[in-house]
Amino acid sequence: MSFTLKQVRYFVGVAEFGSVTRASRELAISQSAITEAIKDLEQRLGVKLFERRSRGLETTYQGHVFLRHAKAILAEVSNAETIFDSTPLPKGARLNVGVTSLTAGYVLSDILARFRRACPGVEVNAVEDTGEYLEHLIVGGELDVAVMVVSNLRNHDALHSEILAVSPFRLWLPIGHRLSEVESISLEDLRDEPQILLDVDEMQAETLRLTSAYRANLKIAFRTRSVEAVRSLVASGAGVALLPDLVYRPWSLEGDRIESRDVSGKLPVVQVGFVWRRGAGMTETTRAFLSVAQSYHSPRLR
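Request: output the structure for the sequence above.
Response:
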């Protein structure tokens, strides 16, 4: 069994954009070339990678698993192409980076993996805490940089920030839910639905604000600080969830499918970025980390 980088790139494009048509437009490749590449890739792997839905293509469970490896392959290729572009960092260089619980597993893990491959000699010390406390550590010079939600950054006068990804809120549903057949879902449609609340990085506050119109009748089925728990609870039919695309994955740990749908109305977005102190001389190590971080692309798995 063997496949080409071209097939991997086309597969990732279709998985992220959810359609051959859009992937063709974004990648500037003919639809027929992408279709043939995906068909050959499925034959070589011996599995079905996509299922056709009314709103486009969705990865199967096997496709979801292969997508992680495909992205890792493309990341390694990118690193190999740029390995000689940067100035070597001094021996014993150190990076102190902060991260919030929401971004730890969904943003920082990918960036750190890329950074360690690009700068293997750097010692990385990562600290996880609330956004408010990370701002305090950056201002005090105890952290070089933090990867966090910057939508509600408090100390603008003392901190610089740069956005890495903008993630809209969407509705998570179990397969077969009554709302999955509704053409346009509104917040009012959620009035009688039990809600699973994620209590990290102000996510719970945002959800409660969204549902304020029917707060008196809000049915809270579960509160948790675990995204995986939210996924499992939604997949099992225990409730629905309003969460940013950043943390959406189409499968629970138990292998149950989760659907993600747009909700009409003015929904918030989560802005994830990196933050550093104003006026602080940036080290070469920090510059290298920011350069790697700027190549981060938020997954769009639907």
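The chain has a mean pLDDT of 83.
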